[in-house]
Amino acid sequence: MTSTEVLTLFIYLSIKNPARAARRLIDFRITRQMLWCGLILVAILNTLTQQFSNFMVPGPPLLSGITDMAFIYFLFVIGGLLSIVFAIYFVGRTFGGQGSINDVMVVIIWLQFLRLLVQILVLFFLFFKLPTLSLLVVLAATIFGFWILTHFVNQAHSFESLGKSVLILVASFGGLLVAWSLLASIVGFGLMGTTRV
User: Fold this and answer.
1) Are 143 and 135 in contact (CB under 8 A)?
2) What is the pLDDT, as a whole number, of residue 190?
3) How many domains does the chain have?
4) Nearest Cα to 168, choosing from 186, 149, 187?
5) Residue 89's closest CA among 35, 145, 11, 24?
6) Among residues 95, 118, 115, which one has the least CA distance to residue 167?
7) Of 48, 71, 126, 147, which has fewest CB within 10 angstroms of its CB?
8) Per-residue pLDDT tens for 28-55?
9) Structural domain boundaries enclosing 178
C-alpha cells in the first residue's frame, strides 16, 4: 500500500470511525521527534493556506496584524496547537486519563491536518464564487470536527465514556480561553503603556 493510499484510508476512517482511526494512529507509537516535525509541518501548511486565503478574501482588520504576517501567524498556530495539546493532556490526566503527551499530540496533529483539507476545500469553492457551499462546509466541519475530536480524546486517554471526553474538552478550551484573554489584556496594556511613553 502506497503512502497516498494509507493517507486516503486514514481520512476515510477518521470520518467513518474516528475512534478506530485514533486508536490506529496511537498504536503507531510515533516518536516525539517525528511528532514535532509533524506539528511544524501542519503549522507551515496552515500558514501558507492562510496567506492564500488572505489574498482571496481579506480578513477582518482586527486580525490582520496576525494573519497578514506569515511568521507571526506561524508562531500563533504553533502556540495554539501546543496549548491545546497540553491542556487536553493535563485536564485529561486530572480526570483519570491514561494518555501520554505523544498520544494527545498525534491525534491533535492529525485533526489539524484534516482541518487543513477542509480549509483548502473552502478556498476551492470561494475561488469558483460559491460562498454558500463554503459556508455549509465550514458549518459541517465545525460540528463534525468536534465529534471527531471527542472520539480522539476518548481514545487518547483510554476513557470509556464520550461524556467525560466532552467534559474534558469544555474544561480545556474554557481554561485556554481565560488564559488567552488574560494574555491579550496584558499585551494590550503593555502596548498602551509603550505608546504613552
Assistant:
1) no
2) 46
3) 1
4) 149
5) 35
6) 95
7) 71
8) 999 999 999 999 999 999 999 988 887 7
9) 3-196
